[in-house]
Every structure is written in C-alpha cells, then in structure tokens.
Predict the structure.
Amino acid sequence: MRWAALLSLAMAGLVVSTAELQAGDAALTVAYGNGVHAFNDGDYQCSYDELSGVIEAGANDARAYYFRGLAALKLGRLDEAEADFQQGAGLEAEGRSGVGSHAISLALERVQGCDRIKLEQYRGRARVAALQRERDMNRRRYSDIEDAEAEVLRKRRPERIAPAESVPAPEAKAEADAEPKPEADEPPPAERMEREKPAAKPGDAVNPFADEPAER
C-alpha cells in the first residue's frame, strides 16, 4: 500500500509538471502571436515588449528574435536589432530554434523591403559560418581517425628488423653459372696464333729484287 501511494504521488507530480509545462508553452505561443500581430499593425513598441517577454522566458525561437529585431529597427534601435538578428540567425543555422527554416521563412513573408534584406544578410552569414564549422569539425574528426590508425600500425610493427642478407636472385645465379669463364692460363686468341705460326728459316728470306714466277 505504501509503495502504491508513493507511486500515485509521483505520477500526480509528473502530471502537474507536464500540465505546467504545457501551460507555459501555450502562454509563450500566445505572447509570440501578440508580438507578431502588433508588429504587422505598426505598434512596434507593443511588439517589442511582447517578444521581449517571450525571449526572457527562455524561448529559443528564432522568429521571436527576428521580429523583436525588426521592431527595434523600426524604433531606431539599430544595435539591438542587429544583436537580435545575429542571435536568431545563430539559433536557426545551428538547428536549435525548434522550428525549421521553412516555417521561419513563412512567418517572415509579410516583411519586405530594406528591413528584410538586412535580416537575410544575417541569416545567410550564419548559414555559411555553420557550414564552415561543420567542415572543420569533420576534418578534425577524420584527422583524429587517421592518427589513431597510424598509431595502431606503429604499435603492431616490430621494433627491430634484422637486415636481410644479400642473396642473388635465382635467375641471376643461373645465368652466372651458365656463362663460360676463360681459363686463367689460356692466352688471348691473337697471342695464341702468333705462338702457333712456324718460325721462318734463314733461306726463306724474301728477295725484293727476285723475278716473279711465270704464270702457267
């Protein structure tokens, strides 16, 4: 019985917390709608105040920052408008706004002219910056993976490898064995012919003045 009572109390507390959360979200939604309607009606101070209440309550809706910035721009508060544009663009580009870019663009359809151009400049710069951060993060991730793989390969490699002896290839060794080698004591061919030529006799001297033998 005691455990059942504790469980009932816990469930009751959970229901109350969920109801309060839903009521808070509904109140923020109403305040945001009032701020947008006031801006469209030209009541820029009321719009600024309503949207400030939404933002101060902790809402991360980029639309609230955009419309409060637009209201501040109409009121001549340029620095506040640019700060709101930058904050809202960062939430939208990083996907932390709670609503997608398509829904944000639909909410801004009635905003045209120079104010819309100024706002779109912040949105475009934020998207480019977010893409660059994502590329840098992926590059660092891949670099860490490559470093880890290189470290694993380095640890697997033996510390010392004995140098391999220089052994001739089998083909080169066979060619070297098949090639005939000259004997050490055998003289060169020219010198051998001179040695084998018979020695000339004393009577065999050639007479340059002798008559040539008659032809037969």
Observations:
- The CA atoms of residues 63 and 104 lie 6 Å apart.
- Residues 114-156 form the longest helix (43 residues).
- The chain has eight helices and no strands.
